């Protein structure tokens, strides 16, 4: 009898071990999940498609197993209490016109309906502008200067129209020696005497909301533009960095915008299906 009892005890123990290893231990995954660090960051982009806004969230730790995890936003929404974010690989996102843009929202990480961690955020305080584009540099021989211009989609938006732009430029041989200028317009003049003669330069731009009602983060950098300064003899810019470069830049910008529209179409189609 004692031998039979011992055998049953061993069998029961083995069943528990096998059950736990296969992921069916009762409440085991929830208990383990509560020990993890699920810190995350989010940013918003307003009017990405008409009146629709984008919210994008991701875990700070890229190695987190997010297979069964969900994101939910509640509060400061139009006509609904909460919305679930879609998932694309390790990124969670939602594109909607339901953001009220007033007051706090609560964004939570959830596992099977249970909240693991939550953060209060204002959609208008986590805005990341779209990257500038069409960066161009034109040399004016009569003025001995360079006129830098660029474009931004925010000029055509109703929200987040006021931006601060950071222009960074450097000699290509000086990889870490960036010169930086902040401005609110989309035009900057660089004096020729401030630059090295007969040198190749790289220039790029990024933007951040002007801290009035909207606040947030720096955009991604624009594609870089490259130009060469005239030599000491007064020679003009190489044609490679004049009209030809502008043509290539326009083709590149059109390609980038078409790709962006394609991605937005996928997001909208995914929302419609959901």
UniProtKB/TrEMBL annotation:
Full protein name: Interleukin-7 receptor subunit alpha
Task of the protein: Receptor for interleukin-7. Also acts as a receptor for thymic stromal lymphopoietin (TSLP).
PANTHER family: CYTOKINE RECEPTOR, INTERLEUKIN-7 RECEPTOR SUBUNIT ALPHA
Listed Pfam families: FN3_7
Topology of the protein relative to the lipid bilayer: Single-pass type I membrane protein
InterPro entries according to UniProt: FN3_7, FN3_dom, FN3_sf, Hempt_rcpt_S_F1_CS, Ig-like_fold
Domain Fibronectin type-III residue range list: 131-232
Entry annotated with the keyword Glycoprotein: yes
Subunit organization: The IL7 receptor is a heterodimer of IL7R and IL2RG. The TSLP receptor is a heterodimer of CRLF2 and IL7R. Interacts with CD53.
One GO-annotated biological process of the protein: hemopoiesis
Subcellular location(s) per record: Membrane
Family statement drawn from the similarity comment of this UniProt entry: Belongs to the type I cytokine receptor family. Type 4 subfamily.
Keywords assigned: Disulfide bond, Glycoprotein, Membrane, Phosphoprotein, Receptor, Signal, Transmembrane, Transmembrane helix, Ubl conjugation
The organism's place on the tree of life at top rank: Eukaryota
Molecular function in Gene Ontology: cytokine receptor activity
Keyword Zinc-finger in record: no
């Amino acid at each position: 009898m004692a031998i039979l009892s011992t055998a049953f005890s061993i069998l029961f123990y083995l069943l528990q071990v096998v059950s736990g290893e296969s992921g069916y231990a009762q409440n085991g995954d929830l208990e383990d999940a509560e020990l993890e660090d699920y810190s995350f960051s989010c940013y918003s982009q307003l009017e990405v498609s008409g009146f629709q806004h984008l919210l994008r969230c991701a875990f700070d730790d890229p190695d987190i197993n997010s297979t069964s995890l969900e994101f939910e936003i509640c509060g400061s929404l139009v006509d609904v209490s909460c919305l679930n974010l879609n998932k694309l690989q390790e990124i969670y996102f939602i594109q909607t016109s339901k953001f009220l843009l007033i007051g706090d929202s609560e964004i939570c990480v959830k596992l099977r309906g249970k909240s693991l961690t939550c953060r209060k955020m204002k959609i208008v305080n986590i805005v990341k502008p779209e990257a500038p584009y069409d960066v161009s540099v034109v040399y004016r021989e009569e003025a001995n200067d360079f006129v830098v211009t660029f474009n931004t989609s925010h000029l055509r938006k109703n929200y987040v129209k006021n931006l601060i732009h950071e222009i960074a430029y450097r000699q290509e041989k000086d990889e870490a020696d960036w010169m930086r200028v902040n401005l609110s317009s989309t035009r900057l003049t660089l004096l020729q005497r401030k630059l090295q003669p007969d040198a190749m330069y790289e220039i790029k731009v990024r933007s951040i909301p002007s801290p009035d009602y909207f606040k947030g983060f720096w955009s991604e950098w624009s594609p870089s533009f490259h130009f060469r300064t005239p030599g000491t003899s007064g020679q003009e810019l190489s044609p490679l960095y004049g009209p030809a470069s502008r043509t290539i830049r326009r083709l590149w910008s059109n390609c980038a915008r078409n790709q962006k529209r394609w991605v937005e179409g996928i997001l909208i189609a995914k929302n419609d299906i959901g």
